[in-house]
């Protein structure tokens, strides 16, 4: 299976686009005419540059408003096409996309369009070129792939085929199953795009909101299954018009595209195993059984502050690494690793971000399979020279320089071997496990991260929620494994004036801004925390008055919540309590939660949490900005 991507999907100059596309592993490109015109090179030159990057030109596009024109306009349309044929021959492209006409003078009629395409096909054939006809969802007369196919069928010319685009089919709600009836060899090209389901004008939606398969809400897998069941053997190409991608990093968007395509084809194969897919088999989306460890990079004074924070949270230092300046801190089944080793990855993470989470270890059934899937999706393996006594645990670079380790049963001995203890930690204040990690990023990075997690792991995306900060909006997207073994929230800040945005401004990448740990008795834990000097984030009493007016809460419980600064929420599945710790100078904090069936993250409480954090962060009497 050949993969391709339209140059319009990527930001930058043509050369930057080509570099990114080639590095991400694609076989070819759809060259958008505009990307050629804006370049200074001649057509021959540009064609050569593309081939020098190891890419082929799978498609030249778009050619607009061709079919159904009367008289002189029709003659001009054919002349225009001949010019583009000249250009294609110079470039070394043999297939052109003709999108269905939106011309105000165009006339309808399937036979009229078929006659035009047959004649153009005849002219293309003389030059060894082919034409593909695509129904734009907003085409004047032709806006359904079934009509485009009927026109191509009637044109009845070997150099005329149909081009299918998942957006135009699925965006209009057309049944992709109808594609199975088209002979595969008459489908000349297939373009893929997903999109979020937002009701709006089709053309506007298509030109600004498309995204990578798996990033949106359209059934692109069903579409691709039908295409392959029809017998299509040509390239599978991404054509993504998206405002964010146009302004994003060419490399990241290209890599996301590749990750999305491989994931899609793997999903197709699993959904319909009898289909022939020419792509190496990869392990399925991996289950996650829990968080094995969270590692902080720190140094000096900041390290002391972190230790004090861990102590107040009920953690104890239970072991030291046999070969490095690394400590193990435990409470129940939670392991936190404090890494002060110089010259290692942790030290470079500290230099770049200050005290921060630099590594996350996950329990998986098979670390080899997890690594294999991650590599097939384009992730780079991570390793550093092991010290004496250090085990080699498979790891990858996540996005933005982060590191993820994968531990399976074969690594059960790692704690004993490296830290001299394999026991669970002391009970501390009753914290039991990691509930979720919250990563902060720019809004534009959210799709990349959610694709990263949802393509590698068996995780479901929850609907995006808006979180109100006194100084701006933060979008929040949660991903969860089916049993809640791993929960990640991605928080996208649009301005550095928000609490999340200010944290981000001090860092790079998509740092972990808070870690939530579970208890099964929030009141007992709150008391134990207070005894250890843990300082909860103070919540104003207005909050509790409002809570009492909204929810039916026993007066005793309300009083206890108020006393310990505990926030509360409920959903259809159950109830939720949360306590926030005070944030560090950079804005990092811990949260303690008790979840009784509840599926969310206390989003209704987030504005009060943020306002309280900002109040504390601000010197008294100073305005917020
Ligand atoms: O938005 C457009 O005009 C446009 C052009 C070419 C395509 O292949 C397409 O899907 C849309
Ligand atoms: Mg298209």
UniProtKB/TrEMBL annotation:
Q: Which residue ranges does the record assign to the VOC domain?
A: 290-409, 433-582
Query: Which metal ions or organic cofactors does this protein require, according to UniProt?
Result: a divalent metal cation
Q: Which Pfam families match?
A: AP_endonuc_2, Glyoxalase, Glyoxalase_5
Which keywords accompany this UniProt record?
A: Lyase, Metal-binding
CDD domains for this protein: HPPD_N_like (cd08342)
Question: In the Enzyme Commission scheme, what number(s) does this protein have?
Answer: 4.2.1.118
User: Does Lyase appear among the keywords?
Assistant: yes
**Pathway per the UniProt entry:** Aromatic compound metabolism; 3,4-dihydroxybenzoate biosynthesis
- Reaction catalysis annotation: 3-dehydroshikimate = 3,4-dihydroxybenzoate + H2O
Q: Which residues bind a divalent metal cation?
A: 134, 165, 191, 239
| Record GO terms (molecular function) | 3-dehydroshikimate dehydratase activity; metal ion binding
Q: Name one GO biological process term.
A: 3,4-dihydroxybenzoate biosynthetic process
* Ligand binding (Mg(2+)): 436, 514, 591
Q: Which family is annotated?
A: Belongs to the bacterial two-domain DSD family.
Which PANTHER family does UniProt cross-reference here?
HYDROXYPYRUVATE ISOMERASE, XYLOSE ISOMERASE-LIKE TIM BARREL DOMAIN-CONTAINING PROTEIN
* Protein purpose: Catalyzes the conversion of 3-dehydroshikimate to protocatechuate (3,4-dihydroxybenzoate), a common intermediate of quinate and shikimate degradation pathways.
- The identity of this protein, by name, is 3-dehydroshikimate dehydratase
Q: Which organism is it from?
A: Seohaeicola zhoushanensis
């Amino acid at each position: 299976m050949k993969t391709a991507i339209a140059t319009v999907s990527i930001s930058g100059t043509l050369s930057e686009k080509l570099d990114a596309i080639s590095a991400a592993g694609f076989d070819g490109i759809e060259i958008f005419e505009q990307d050629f015109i804006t370049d200074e090179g001649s057509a021959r030159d540009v064609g050569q540059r593309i081939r020098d990057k190891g890419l082929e030109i799978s498609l030249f596009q778009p050619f607009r408003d061709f079919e159904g024109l009367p008289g002189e306009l029709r003659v001009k349309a054919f002349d225009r096409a001949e010019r583009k044929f000249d250009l294609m021959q110079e470039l070394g492209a043999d297939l052109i996309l003709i999108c269905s006409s939106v011309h105000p003078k165009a006339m309808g009629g399937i036979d009229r369009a078929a006659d035009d395409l047959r004649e153009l096909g005849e002219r293309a054939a003389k030059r060894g070129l082919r034409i593909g006809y695509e129904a734009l969802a907003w085409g004047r007369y032709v806006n359904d792939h079934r009509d485009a196919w009927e026109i191509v069928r009637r044109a009845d010319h070997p150099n005329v085929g149909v081009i299918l685009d998942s957006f135009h089919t699925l965006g209009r709600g057309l049944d992709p199953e109808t594609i199975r009836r088209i002979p595969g060899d008459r489908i000349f090209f297939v373009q893929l795009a997903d999109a979020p389901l937002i009701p709006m004008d089709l053309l506007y939606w298509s030109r600004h909101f498309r995204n990578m398969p798996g990033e949106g809400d359209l059934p692109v897998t069903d579409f691709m299954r039908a295409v392959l069941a029809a017998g299509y053997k040509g390239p599978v190409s991404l054509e993504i018009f998206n405002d964010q991608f146009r302004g994003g990093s060419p490399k990241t968007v290209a890599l996301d595209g590749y990750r999305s395509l491989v994931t899609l084809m793997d999903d197709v194969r699993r959904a319909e195993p009898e289909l022939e897919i020419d792509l190496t088999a990869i392990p399925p989306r991996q289950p996650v059984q829990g968080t094995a460890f969270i590692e902080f990079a720190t140094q000096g004074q900041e390290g002391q502050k972190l230790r004090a924070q861990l102590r107040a949270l009920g953690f104890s230092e239970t072991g030291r690494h046999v070969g490095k300046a690394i400590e193990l801190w435990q409470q129940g089944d939670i392991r936190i690793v404090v890494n002060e080793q110089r010259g290692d990855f942790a030290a470079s993470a500290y230099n770049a971000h200050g005290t921060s989470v630099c590594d996350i270890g996950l329990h998986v059934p098979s670390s080899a399979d997890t690594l294999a899937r991650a590599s097939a999706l384009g992730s780079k393996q991570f390793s550093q020279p092991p010290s004496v006594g250090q085990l080699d645990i498979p790891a990858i670079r996540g996005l933005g320089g982060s590191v993820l380790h994968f531990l399976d049963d074969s690594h059960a001995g790692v704690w004993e071997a490296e830290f001299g203890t394999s026991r669970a930690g002391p009970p501390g204040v009753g914290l039991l496990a990691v509930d979720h990690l919250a990563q902060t990023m720019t809004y534009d990075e959210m799709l990349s991260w959610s694709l990263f997690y949802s393509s590698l792991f068996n995780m479901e995306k929850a609907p995006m929620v808006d979180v109100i900060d006194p100084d701006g909006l933060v979008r929040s997207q949660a991903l969860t494994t089916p049993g809640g073994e791993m929960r990640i929230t991605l928080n996208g800040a649009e301005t550095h004036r928000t609490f999340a945005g200010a944290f981000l401004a001090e860092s790079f990448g998509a740092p972990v801004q808070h870690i939530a740990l579970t208890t099964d008795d929030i009141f007992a834990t709150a008391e134990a925390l207070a005894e250890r000097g843990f300082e909860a984030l103070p919540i104003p009493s207005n909050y509790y008055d409002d809570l009492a007016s909204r929810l039916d809460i026993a007066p005793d419980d309300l009083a206890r919540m108020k006393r310990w600064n505990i926030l509360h929420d409920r959903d259809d599945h159950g109830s939720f309590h949360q306590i926030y710790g005070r944030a560090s100078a950079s804005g990092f904090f811990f949260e303690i939660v008790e979840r009784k069936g509840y599926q969310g993250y206390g989003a209704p409480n987030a504005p009060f949490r943020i306002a309280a954090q900002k109040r504390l962060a601000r010197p008294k009497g100073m305005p917020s900005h």
